[in-house]
Amino acid sequence: MAEVGVSMNKDDLRSLSAYLEQNVQGFSGLKHVQKFAVGQSNPTFCLNTEKEKFVLRCKPRGKLVQSAHAIDREYRVLTALADTDVPIAKTILYCEDLDVLGTEFYLMEFVQGEIFSDPALPSLNNHQRTDIYQGQCSALAAIHSVDLRAVNLTDYGRPGSYLERQYERWSQQYRSTKIERVEAMGQLISWLGRNMPSDDGRATLVHGDYRLDNLMISTPDWSIAAVVDWELSTIGHPYADLAYQCMQWRLPNNPIAKGLGAIDRNKVGIPTERQYIAEYCKLSGNVPIANWSFYLAFSFFRLAAILHGILERSTGGNASNPQAVAVGGMYRSVAGMGLDVAHNGY
Questions:
Q1: Where are the beta strands (DSSP E) in the chain?
Q2: Fewest C-beta in 10 Å: which of 128, 189, 232, 321?
Q3: Is 288 a residue whose pLDDT tops 90?
Q4: How far apart are CA 33 and CA 17, in angstroms?
Q5: Among 274, 74, 245, 236, CA closest to 146
Q6: CA 249 to CA 124: how far, in whole Å?
Q7: Measured distance CA(42)–CA(273) in Å, rounded
Q8: Running DSSP on this structure, what letter comes out for residue 103?
Q9: CA angle, 170 as apex, 167 and 172 as ends, to 5°?
């Protein structure tokens, strides 16, 4: 596979500037383009003009895996959410003309905010941490409360049987790999298969990768300025989104896992897992969650399968992240955490 990526030379900048000046009202004088360090799956750039800033997000160039880098889906969902309670960066245009930049891209407004990668938020005080976690919970509830019919997203994914389909997908992917497997993962897969809850009919918009470092924080008031990186969004089960985020309460607090580990949450102004879930249920109108242990164990299983894939690619020399071996190697402990939840409950 050819190396993928996007860098902009002078010809790219001239072509992009001419296209945007012609198609975006008020766009003029493109002065500087800077690539963000985040958003590596789909390269993301800040465009500085004479008067304002914009953000451009594009597919990588080169041969891509089919269905990956679905920025058209990102553009669609962000556009649909413009008038909802979900904090997002509003979209401006989508360009399919490969003559402009050599790849598809979309333009959106620039949102001022900061991204925090460590959920312990060590540089902030207790009040600031509390505000951020409250906003994080409110934004997730808002995503799951979106009226799909009102925003024309009823066909954005397959409703129903979301957990079963995800279970089959990730089980198959894990079993198809050719590197080491651990007993805990096999036991976890078996337990999930035996304890799959019946479909309860819940089908909402889900983000698919909802975590702190996919949120832009407005530092003046510590509110959520925008939820970013919607590449994995679809119609699914809301508790899968919630459980995926709640894993961070149990993951170790280190530069790789980026969890809350053994941190005393109440001492630092961060809600406990139970407090966070209770607040989510209050905001979303859901009753106390039955089978929470399943949803949480399922999220550990999904993460372990993803990490196992990263490990396989890294040992084959195909991973771009120099930390890929260490990150992928976490799948062993993550599978163990999932099995512990499965056996011992919440």
A1: 32-35, 44-48, 53-58, 91-95, 105-109, 204-206, 215-218, 223-227, 234-236
A2: 321
A3: no
A4: 11
A5: 236
A6: 18
A7: 31
A8: S
A9: 100
* Residue 298, burial from CB neighbour count under 10 angstroms (0-12, 13-18, 19+): buried
Backbone phi and psi for residue 126, each to the nearest 5 degrees, phi listed first: -60, -45
The 10s digit of each residue's pLDDT in 2-44 is 233 456 778 888 999 999 999 999 898 888 898 887 644 688 9
The 10s digit of each residue's pLDDT in 151-178 is: 999 999 988 889 999 999 999 989 988 7
Q: What does pTM read for this prediction?
A: 0.90
- pLDDT of 1 strictly over 60: no
The conformational region for residue 69 under phi > 0 = left, psi -120 to 50 = alpha, else beta, is: left
Residue 196 backbone phi and psi in degrees, to 5:
-60, 120
**What is the DSSP track for 132-166?**
HHHHHHHHHHHHHT--TTTTT-TTSS--S-HHHHH
Place of tokens 């809301």: 238
Strand-pairing partners, residue 216, are 226
Mean pLDDT of 69-74: 86
Residue 306, pLDDT above cutoff 90: no
3-state secondary structure of 296: helix
Binned at pLDDT 50, 70 and 90, residue 193 comes out as: very high
